Recover the amino acids of this structure.
């Protein structure tokens, strides 16, 4: 990670951590860099979510891009995966998504996407950061070299058509609830499900610039859970602010998280001989029960660091077809280069209809292990993590758990925090083992 850009773009409170001047400069650099490298007019596609500040950042990016000679194609309010799709299918030099994903409305972010629809490479990101710090000069375009803007809502419409084309069954007669989180999915998800014949019920699809992710969407799945049960729906899907993640709710109210989605679709792929390398890619935060379930089915798995970026890198490097996170970022590499919430919901519908089973029935063999995760604020993350007595305490817990659970201790990527997580046969055991390690961290003087 760089000085400004993390694993998911440049993110922070609008006009506090990330301001309009940053956006202008990012546009200036990208317009010059790709125009210079390709020897032709640079073309950049831009999408945004529904935050009030997204308009400010959109115009600032456009000002920077056109001042450097690039043409900016505006998809307007759309999803992150739709920008990724447009970048790779319409031969853009790069794409930009303005969103802070599941964060509150006052935050925002700038996500950069390469011409293959993937997250921008670190080398280019570091060059942008050098320009942001004033270490590089970028010339202004003049005369006919100045860029222009192009209304590109057609790109969003093509993406909707692409999603519809992925369905292999009609959804007719299925009552589906959609929680659009007052975000990017509000203009897209219902159109897709309606076109496929579903009886579609939508909540949280009235964005006002200030209500994105507020008590709605995948980070507040209990809202959709109640709606599905109260209205007798067959299934529900909840997206986050930029719709690159999805969680689901069964008709009986059971919540289906990313691990369960990986289990349901990974199993379905194996049954049809479609699970290349017989492997599903997970992160270290996936539930221990997922690995137990895969072991019983003879399905292999990879474990990456937390972040869909790392999941995708592993998939590309090894030729795997499905991977994701517990949070609902699921990547189907045959169809997309990033997590796609709406696509994920379509894939779950496919399994339900193909096997004539509910999501609850489909994930019944997957027994979730109780999990306790606690955060400890520390003076220095690296020192606390490397402490010999802390390491010994972690090893002691791991030995007690044996094959019946696991302990994971890791540093937060964004806060001065150590995260201690234990999965075991009971919640009480998890609590006991987590507290055992935390007490050692405190006794060693690492806490604030």
């Amino acid at each position: 990670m760089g000085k400004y850009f993390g694993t998911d773009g440049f993110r922070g409170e609008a006009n506090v951590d990330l301001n309009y001047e940053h956006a202008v400069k990012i546009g200036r650099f990208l317009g010059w860099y790709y125009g210079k490298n390709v020897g032709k007019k640079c073309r950049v596609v831009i999408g945004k979510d529904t935050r009030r500040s997204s308009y400010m950042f959109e115009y600032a990016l456009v000002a920077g891009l056109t001042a450097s000679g690039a043409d900016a194609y505006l998809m307007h309010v759309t999803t992150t995966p739709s920008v990724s799709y447009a970048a790779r299918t319409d031969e853009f030099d790069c794409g930009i998504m303005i969103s802070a994903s599941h964060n509150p409305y006052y935050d925002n972010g700038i996500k950069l996407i390469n011409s293959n629809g993937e997250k921008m490479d670190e080398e280019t990101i570091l060059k942008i950061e050098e320009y942001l710090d004033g270490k590089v000069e970028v010339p202004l375009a003049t005369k006919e070299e100045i860029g222009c803007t192009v209304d590109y809502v057609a790109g969003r419409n093509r993406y909707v058509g692409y999603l519809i084309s992925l369905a292999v069954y009609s959804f007719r007669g299925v009552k589906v609830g959609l929680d659009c989180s007052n975000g990017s999915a509000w203009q897209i998800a219902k159109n897709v499900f309606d076109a496929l014949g579903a009886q579609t019920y939508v909540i949280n699809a009235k964005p006002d610039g200030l209500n994105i992710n507020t008590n709605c969407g995948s980070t507040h799945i209990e809202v959709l859970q109640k709606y599905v049960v109260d209205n007798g729906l067959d299934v529900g899907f909840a997206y986050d602010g930029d719709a690159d993640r999805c969680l689901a709710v069964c008709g009986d109210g059971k919540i289906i998280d990313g691990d369960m989605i990986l289990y349901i679709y990974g199993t379905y792929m194996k049954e049809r001989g479609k699970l290349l390398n017989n492997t599903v890619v997970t992160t270290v935060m996936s539930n221990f029960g997922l690995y137990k379930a895969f072991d019983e089915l003879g399905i292999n798995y990879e474990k990456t660091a937390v972040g869909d970026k790392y999941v995708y890198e592993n998939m590309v490097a090894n030729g795997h077809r499905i991977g994701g996170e517990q949070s609902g970022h699921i990547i189907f590499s045959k169809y997309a280069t990033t997590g796609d919430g709406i696509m994920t919901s379509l894939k779950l519908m496919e399994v339900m209809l193909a096997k004539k089973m509910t999501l609850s029935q489909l994930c019944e063999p997957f027994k979730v292990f109780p999990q306790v995760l606690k955060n400890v604020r520390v003076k220095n993350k690296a020192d606390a993590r490397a402490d010999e007595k802390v390491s010994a305490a972690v090893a002691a817990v791991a030995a007690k758990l044996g094959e019946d659970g696991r302990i994971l201790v890791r540093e937060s990527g964004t806060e001065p925090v150590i995260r201690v997580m234990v999965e075991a046969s009971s919640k009480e055991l998890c609590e006991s083992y987590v507290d055992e390690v935390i007490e050692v961290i405190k006794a060693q003087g690492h806490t604030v």
Q: What stands out?
A: Residues 20-38 form the longest helix (19 residues). The chain has a mean pLDDT of 95. The CA atoms of residues 189 and 342 lie 6 Å apart.
